[in-house]
């Protein structure tokens, strides 16, 4: 199907090198607009025409899951057409399936992308924290539903894109930017602003005049949302959205009491499905979801039509229960489900979890007042498709004890003001049919003032913001995350009975449920009162850790949470099992007395792949040759990333650096030369006399004899008793480090080969990549003396990665040093150093580390 004109415009801007800020209505094909240029470039354009990797970031994991399923299916069709695979992956906290961001097209939650861009990734250990920045710098970056980003992430993303945008093209998009935000962001980021014109919106919504235009009539109610109002307006598909989980549960119970039947989500036949969803990944997960949806559809069909079904959907469900409910709702209310017909009479009571990510269409939407952008996002789940007509009924929220509206969780002064203006805007449009242009008028009325204030605050505080960005990127300071990504205003609750006294059992091994901190504070008094009524020893407790948190032997003691202020003392809390209730129908309910049969399930932990799980005996030259094969492409490899993808991905940032001025400019070919030099020199420290002596002794200890060549890796199999014993026997001979020594011994060589007099930043970047290819914070080295044959070995390695003329550079090796000064050669932190140097470092070290590890997998 041909692209819409606005989609063509977006593609044209991006492929010409311009970044874009896009405003388009829900259901108008924003995702296709975002990915059309990438798909075309991936299959049809030269490597340096556009990035060969796309990171698609969304604010909620359900949206990432939806796009992942859709585009993984499309990728199979692309492969049949183009005879080339498009590797589609997902990376969220719930589905951490691509922690190193190696897929061609990666759908990720914002927290995952932004933490990676800042060098403090949630998905990787501290020792691998420098791995993912290079992926961001070399990718096409898409940020969807930008208005839903937390304020901290909004500001950090905008500031980063001012800099990162010199390399990485990006697209920011949403349906609900205010005009103030739209114009200001475009100017700030020097990006093209694309707004879909009204006549094109009409054409899209009517499918070029073939269908009537969808219509949503907005009504404002006088009374709070209740079951009577929902039932009075119900046809066959009703969606009721409450701002808080507690109010959603209360409304659900009202509907149950009014005669609605609970959706059969607790049917015993679903137990193995839920178990599979907790463990499965990829296709196995898809099959389990499909089976679960089929079972639920059959149960709904068996129930007759005398009374409507009702289903509850919010954030306090265990992951498998929530995922299956979302999948069922999509199957019933998406275009395919509606076209098939036979959908049951269903009322869904939900919270903000349905605002984005669910391609569904209700006939009637009931929503409590919230920021206008959120209300309109919710409205996007009503009369979503061409020709449909729907009602959106907006309700006031209950009053607090002081008589003011209880807008929670929108509780800040700015959010309360936006909610007040939103309520006024909808009241002024009572019973109006709002098209896209009219919705933008509501957004402008409700949000412009707050958006302007946020942008002003960002400008005034950008000095402090950049200091935090520097702390994260340069120093690896993970404590900057709350200020740059998301302030942790939620608490994880586990239903668990911790031991009294010292315990080695970690509370983090359980799958908890996240609650807004204010919710837990508000419930604490009632929980403690119920504790007394039941004669329990405690109600809510929090852990205190003892020892180094990186130490596996860490222990915990637990303290009682007695006052609301105690909720600020921890991010995780245990609630007594008798003071909580959980089932697949309602989710977690605190303060509901129970027999205590439910406890939080153990979390499914997926271990990160270590840099090396085992080694084959390998000469230095052979190891370098294996890395080069991974980089350039090995037709015999079964590993997707070892087929030349890394070299193809390097072409785009190399071109961008070549187009820059000043310290950012690098001639074509020089960045790739730095990468190849990194391959050849990263293990020079292992060519020391001490390291080679260790290697010979170890090989003899396992009965294989001393190698006739200088060794990069000894033969080691994890779990092999002979190898484990030999490691212990000769450990005293093994030097403790080699990366810093590698960089220092190669410093002059790098300086000469990379034209360091002219391109001092690239020289420092390459030096840092070698020094930090195992540890991002390394800044020192031990005394060393290279083996007499090190020079000829390095000369051979240089010829392997380049050509025979590269051999001459081996003369610049520094064969020994009693006091190597690594810090002297590292890039300086901005503002003394240039960000271009650090970006070059991150690109080089990513390729170096990935090729190093993948070469071992190949072996």
Global structural class: alpha/beta
How many β-strand stretches? 28
The residue-averaged pLDDT reads 92
Strand order in space, largest sheet: 10-11-12-9-13-14-8-15
Instruction: Pick out the low-confidence regions.
Output: 606-612
Quickly count the domains. 4
Shape: globular
Family: In the N-terminal section; belongs to the CRISPR-associated nuclease Cas3-HD family. In the central section; belongs to the CRISPR-associated helicase Cas3 family.
Protein name: CRISPR-associated helicase Cas3
GO molecular function: ATP binding; hydrolase activity; metal ion binding; nucleic acid binding; RNA helicase activity
InterPro entries: Cas3-like_dom (IPR054712), CRISPR-assoc_Cas3_HD (IPR006483), CRISPR-assoc_Cas3_HD_sf (IPR038257), DEAD/DEAH_box_helicase_dom (IPR011545), DEAD_box_RNA_helicase (IPR050079), Helicase_ATP-bd (IPR014001), P-loop_NTPase (IPR027417)
